[in-house]
């Protein structure tokens, strides 16, 4: 893995200071209020844009920061040190597949999103389609005037902030993944309804809503990209999201937890000495540091390989991202568990950041595909590869 450049170090420091100054002071209220006001959200977005952190994954030709994969990973790692809703607001939830749209779609949806004027949600999950995204049942039918959308989505993140959605829907029944397309759906269209709110065990402050589509009439230009190419577009978009917004943020949370563990072990005294002097506590801190370093190395090597193209096939890249997703999120789970053990009773109440990170950590192994699904993707690549160790191989 190549060392990061001076400009990348400056990006890391800029992001670290932004998190410390602008985001950490907002954490306390999220657990009790279970939300972020629109005013505070807009302020974060504007400050992040001024700091050069917003929409880092979008090319400069569209007004984004144009970060490389490595640079976006470095940014998201720093954002991961705080709560999920704050990271989402500061980094921007601008999906790369919007750049595949027509000129009119780019003007109407992508460019305002990059400017922080519009907010986009990704509507894929359904009651019968979680990790198996190809099992979605939401339908879009061709009409004389465009398209007609019907169905239900759930667990849609940030729906309350979003004014339009990228919706995955079946356009060719019977073809499975090859019959799925993506559509741009404005929230104010007749027939659109925000359904119930899901109060999740973690990610407090981030809304997760049900979306109901009651025979919504869509214009001809609502189709994003090519017809029946939605599943492939989703794979590309979600792959990048898993690497940056799951893998990198998980590593960032691990590092914050390690800092809290070390701080507590240094200050907390029992039996006449600090608990950090006891062997079992030192072992938990050492194990956490080792595993975080390994998770970060896998994350960064994968990002380097993607930027360099490295002769990798799409299958190999998908498998590497899956390996990152599994290893970083399960590392976070173990680190969070050790942190709670070290903090003891003082880490088990709702005013403790360790307690909230512990709940968040458990969700990381489920969101964007379960660990089991991603292990299967890694295994498929191992069977098909001739490399001695076909995971993030350079």
The CATH class of the largest domain is identified as Mainly Alpha
Straight-line distance between termini: 9 Å
Strand fraction equals 5-15%
Which blocks of ≥5 consecutive residues have pLDDT under 50?
Answer: none
* Largest beta-sheet details: 4 strands, mixed
What is the number of domains?
Answer: 3
Radius of gyration: 21 Å
CATH H-level name of the largest domain... which superfamily? Butyryl-CoA Dehydrogenase, subunit A, domain 3
Structural class: alpha+beta
Tell me the helix content. Answer: 40-55%
Beta strand count: 10
Element pattern in H and E: HHHHHHEEEEEEEEHEEHHHH
Number of helices: 11
Averaged pLDDT: 93
What fold name goes in the CATH topology slot of the largest domain?
A: Butyryl-CoA Dehydrogenase, subunit A, domain 3
Domain Acyl-CoA dehydrogenase/oxidase C-terminal: 228-382
Family: Belongs to the acyl-CoA dehydrogenase family.
Keywords: FAD, Flavoprotein, Oxidoreductase
Domain Acyl-CoA dehydrogenase/oxidase N-terminal: 6-117
How would you describe this protein?
By secondary structure, this protein is of the alpha+beta class. The protein has three domains: 6-101, Butyryl-Coa Dehydrogenase, subunit A, domain 1 (Orthogonal Bundle); 120-224, Beta Barrel (Butyryl-CoA Dehydrogenase, subunit A, domain 2), CATH 2.40.110.10; 231-384, Butyryl-CoA Dehydrogenase, subunit A, domain 3 (Up-down Bundle). The chain contains eleven helices and ten strands. The protein has helices spanning 6-23, 27-33, 38-50, 69-79, 84-91, 103-114, 230-267, 279-308, 314-343, 353-364, 371-384; strands at residues 120-123, 139-143, 146-157, 164-170, 180-186, 192-197, 208-218, 223-224, 269-270, 273-274. It has a four-stranded mixed sheet. Strands 2-3-7-6 form a four-stranded antiparallel sheet, with no helix packed on it. β9 and β10 form a beta hairpin. α1 runs parallel beside α4 (69-79), α9 runs antiparallel to α10 (353-364) and α9 packs across α11 (371-384). It starts with 5 loop residues before the first helix and ends in a 10-residue tail after the last helix. Its cofactor is FAD. Residues 6-117 form the Acyl-CoA dehydrogenase/oxidase N-terminal domain.
């Amino acid at each position: 893995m190549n060392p990061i450049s001076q400009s990348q170090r400056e990006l890391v420091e800029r992001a670290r200071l932004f998190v410390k100054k602008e985001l950490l002071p907002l954490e306390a209220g999220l657990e009790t209020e279970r939300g972020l006001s629109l005013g505070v959200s807009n302020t974060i977005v504007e400050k992040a844009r001024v700091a050069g952190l917003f929409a880092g994954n979008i090319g400069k030709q569209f007004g984004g920061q144009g970060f490389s994969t490595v640079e976006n990973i470095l940014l998201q790692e720093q954002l991961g040190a705080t709560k999920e809703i704050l990271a989402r607001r500061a980094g921007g939830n601008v999906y790369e597949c919007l750049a595949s749209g027509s000129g009119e779609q780019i003007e109407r949806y992508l460019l305002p999103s990059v400017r922080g004027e519009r907010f986009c949600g990704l509507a894929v999950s359904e009651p019968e389609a979680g990790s198996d995204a190809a099992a979605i049942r939401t339908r879009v039918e061709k009409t004389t005037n465009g398209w007609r959308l019907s169905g239900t989505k759930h667990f849609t993140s940030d729906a309350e902030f979003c004014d339009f959605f990228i919706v995955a829907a079946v356009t060719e029944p019977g073809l499975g993944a090859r019959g799925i397309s993506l559509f741009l759906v404005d929230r104010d269209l007749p027939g659109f309804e925000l359904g119930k709110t899901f109060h999740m065990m973690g990610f407090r402050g981030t809304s997760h809503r049900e979306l109901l589509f009651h025979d919504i009439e869509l214009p001809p230009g609502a189709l994003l990209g090519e017809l029946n190419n939605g599943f492939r577009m989703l794979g590309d978009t979600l792959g990048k999201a898993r690497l940056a917004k799951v893998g990198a943020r998980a590593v960032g949370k691990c590092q914050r937890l390690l800092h809290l563990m070390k701080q507590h072990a240094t200050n907390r005294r029992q039996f006449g000495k600090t608990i950090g002097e006891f062997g079992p506590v030192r072992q938990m801190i050492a194990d956490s540091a080792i595993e975080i370093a390994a998770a970060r190395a896998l994350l960064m090597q994968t990002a380097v390989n993607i930027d360099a193209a490295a002769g990798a096939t799409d299958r190999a890249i998908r498998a590497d991202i899956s390996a990152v997703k599994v290893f970083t999120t399960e590392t976070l789970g173990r680190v969070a568990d050790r942190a709670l053990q070290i903090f003891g009773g003082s880490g088990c109440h709702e005013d403790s950041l360790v307690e909230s990170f512990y709940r968040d950590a458990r969700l990381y192994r489920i969101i964007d595909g379960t660990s089991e699904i991603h292990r299967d993707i890694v295994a498929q690549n191992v069977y098909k590869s001739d490399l001695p160790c076909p995971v993030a191989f350079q």
